[in-house]
Protein: cytochrome-c oxidase
Amino acid sequence: MDVISNLTMDERRRALLILLVMALVGLTFAAAGHGDPIAVHGALVLVLSLALAFPVMGHLYDPEPSIERFNAYYDDPSKVGVILTFVWAAFAMFVGDWVAWLMVEPTWTTGSAWSSFGRLRPVHTTGVIFGFGGNGLIATSFYVMQRTCRVRLPDQLSPWFVLIGYNLFCILAVTGYLLGITQSKEYAEPEWYADLWLVIVWVTYFVLYMRTLARREEPHIYVANWYYMAFILVVAMLHIVNNLAVPVSFLSAKSHSLFSGVQDALTEWWYGHNAVAFFLTAGFLGMMYYYLPIRAGRPIFSYRLSIISFWGITFMYMWVGSHHLHHTALPQWVQTLGMTFSLVLLVPSWGSAANALLTLNGAWHKVRDDATLRFMMIAAVFYGLTTFEGSFMAIRSVNALSHYTDWTVGHVHAGALGWVAMITFGALYASIPWLWKRERMYSPALVEVHFWLALSGTAVYVFALWNAGIIQGLMWRTYTENGNLAYTFLDSVVAMRPYYIARALGGLLYLLGALAGCLNLYLTIRFAAPATEAASRKPLRDGLDDAATQPAE
Ligand code: HEM
Ligand code: HEM
Ligand SMILES: [Cu+2]
Structure:
């Protein structure tokens, strides 16, 4: 329970207060909301907050932590965040592969409602994007902001509040779907009370970032921080607007959106696309711009280009959400606007992909020998590939073929498996020895195995669905000589079977890789040799950071 004793007495008191208030809120919902699924969530919040409150109470009067703490960065929340990232990866990818097998064999389920496809699918998407991706972003952002600002986090309580509060949101979301609680907006499924909670957590996160920046000892704000900040700020904006809703009653999980009809659709896809842009892209670019140069031991190829790309994507991404609504009731000009900005967006996107790859010039021998750096290199390649594909699919006539088909799902996973997850695994494998002060990962061979499983899994998954999607699209628009459709819809479903099997197998490879990562994390924490004095990263000042995260021009 070192973690609790390391908090100051004042922080422990405040933590206890927050937990007790939460327990009370949980109790209220549990008791008053009977007959409504919200009561289950009330009970869950009650149990979880008490489970944390007891150990805090037990250590409430421990002595104040040593003043020495100010000589080091505050990394405990990052460590827990890294572990949570792996846990969510294993869980959510397992569910992803289950969902993939359900599309091969729909009977591979328990028969009860919680395990139906419609409930498991959002468990997968929320689990991977918010559970796995979000924890990876939070854990690395705490790490990166301290190093690039050369300052310790301003206090020890708010990072825990952000990390634990955020995971509570993810748990409410995922258990909610299993219970049938959903707002039915893709990627924004959690109901109003979970959304409100996330607003509190997220604003704390933003304030924490700003406070750290304000205290920084490094005059320059390194580019990674711009990307992380855009991620935090824009996600707050999207989340609040898209989730504006009126609950049926304060003791019911159900709510109704403020928007309806085509306005609802456009708000949802403004949110949905920018979730891709700022959650799945800007945040991970922040990660890439810190970890890739450091791991390669080289400064960014062009610092100026990284800034131009930043403002390019920040400005252009905002306008492209309507490419999800081609050929719908949305006015034609709004569709054209979305398509046009999607095309221009390719320029800043490739700016970052090229910048990352050119940074590796002179370090290709390291890419060959070091699977961690190779994860990051492949991530940059897939980032370039996915954005090219996205811009292409945003063209209205191309979208007429691709929309509703598995091509979209293939595009999603080229980005998700190839870019988002690869850069995360690369960043985690770089951070783990630094965080736990180990010489290196316990088994570099296992990192190598993970890399090849991940790469082959992605390739199988994405190739399978490219084929599947184009075949579907073509079958749906093939006519016979006398003008009838050549295939029934069912024909196209039957034609998908081999591709769905391939996808599920590719996903299995990917999942096995993630499990290898979990094992390696455990072995590293438990058994890896401690870093020697010279190799361990010095507190507060740190030679490599200096070299690699300063403007080259
Ligand atoms: C083991 C790895 C994975 C497997 C087997 C897998 C499988 C699946 C399956 C079967 C679907 C449903 C497709 C459908 O409804 O037709 C899906 C959807 C989705 N997955 Fe994954 N997935 C994996 C990893 C990931 C990761 C790491 C991410 C994100 C970081 C991700 C993000 C998504 C998203 C956003 C969707 C919704 C796609 C859409 O609506 O077009 N997945 N996944
Ligand atoms: C320049 C960059 C990009 C553009 C212009 C773009 C464009 C598109 C287009 C046109 C669609 C298909 C919409 C439809 O027919 O329904 C789509 C779907 C999607 N893209 Fe991208 N994309 C880009 C990058 C990415 C990246 C890097 C990811 C990340 C991981 C990603 C994740 C997704 C997801 C999750 C969907 C599925 C949404 C859904 O229907 O559930 N995209 N994108
Ligand atoms: Cu989009």
